[in-house]
Design brief:
Helix content is 11%, strand content 44%. The protein has two helices and 13 strands, in the order αβββββββββββββα. The strands form three sheets. Strands 1, 2, 3, 8, 10 and 11 form a six-stranded antiparallel beta sheet that branches. Strands 4-5-6-13-9 form a five-stranded antiparallel beta sheet, with no helix packed on it. Strand 5 and strand 6 form a beta hairpin. The longest helix has 10 residues. The N terminus is likely disordered.
Length: 170
C-alpha cells in the first residue's frame, strides 16, 4: 500500500456515518446586534426526546428571546421553534437570527425545508453549510401562536470501507 493511501486509511474511521441528531450535542446560538446592544449567545444542548430550550429560562438564548414563552425542540432531522404569547417581533437590524452549529457528525446537511406561519419567513431566510444552519429573523412579526419547522435533509458520509473501496478504484 502506498503512503498516501495508508495515511488516508488512518483518517477514514472518523468519517463513519451516524443516524441523525439524537444523542448528539448541538450548538444553539442567537446573534443580535443593535448599536450598543450586542448578544452572541451560545447554548450547547444534547438532543433527546422533548424540548431542548425553553424561554423564559436560564439558557443564554433567553437573554434575547425574552418575550412570553418560546421553545426550541430538536429532533433527529428537524428543528422546531414555537412562540406563545400576545405577539411580538424581531427587530429590523442586519444581525438578528438563529445559528445552529455542530450538526451531524456522520452526515452532511444538504437541504432545508421550512414550514411556518410567520409572515415573511420564507425559503430565502435559511442558509446552511455541511454542519451548520443560520436563520435570518430580522424584521419579522409573530402572532399569538407562531412557529417554524426546519426539516433537515442530509447525505451520509461514506463508511471507511466504502471510501477505501472507492479510493482503491480510483
Amino acid at each position: 500500500m502506498n503512503k498516501p493511501l495508508l495515511a488516508l486509511a488512518f483518517l477514514l474511521p472518523g468519517l463513519a456515518s451516524a443516524a441523525g441528531l439524537m444523542g448528539t450535542t448541538v450548538d444553539v446560538r442567537y446573534n443580535f446586534e443593535d448599536g450598543a446592544t450586542i448578544f452572541h449567545t451560545l447554548d450547547s444542548v444534547v438532543v433527546g426526546a422533548g424540548i431542548e430550550l425553553s424561554c423564559p429560562g436560564a439558557a443564554q438564548i433567553c437573554q434575547v428571546l425574552n418575550s412570553t414563552t418560546q421553545t426550541l425542540d430538536l429532533s433527529d432531522h428537524g428543528i422546531r421553534y414555537d412562540y406563545a404569547g400576545p405577539g411580538s417581533g424581531f427587530n429590523n437590524i442586519a444581525v438578528n437570527g438563529f445559528d445552529f452549529g455542530s450538526l451531524f457528525v456522520g452526515e452532511t446537511l444538504t437541504g432545508v425545508q421550512l414550514t411556518t406561519n410567520i409572515a415573511g419567513l420564507d425559503s430565502s431566510r435559511p442558509s446552511f453549510s455541511a454542519h451548520g444552519l443560520q436563520l435570518d429573523m430580522h424584521n419579522l412579526s409573530v402572532g399569538n401562536q407562531a412557529f417554524f419547522q426546519l426539516d433537515l435533509q442530509t447525505a451520509p458520509v461514506p463508511e471507511p470501507a466504502s471510501a477505501a473501496l472507492l479510493l482503491g478504484g480510483l
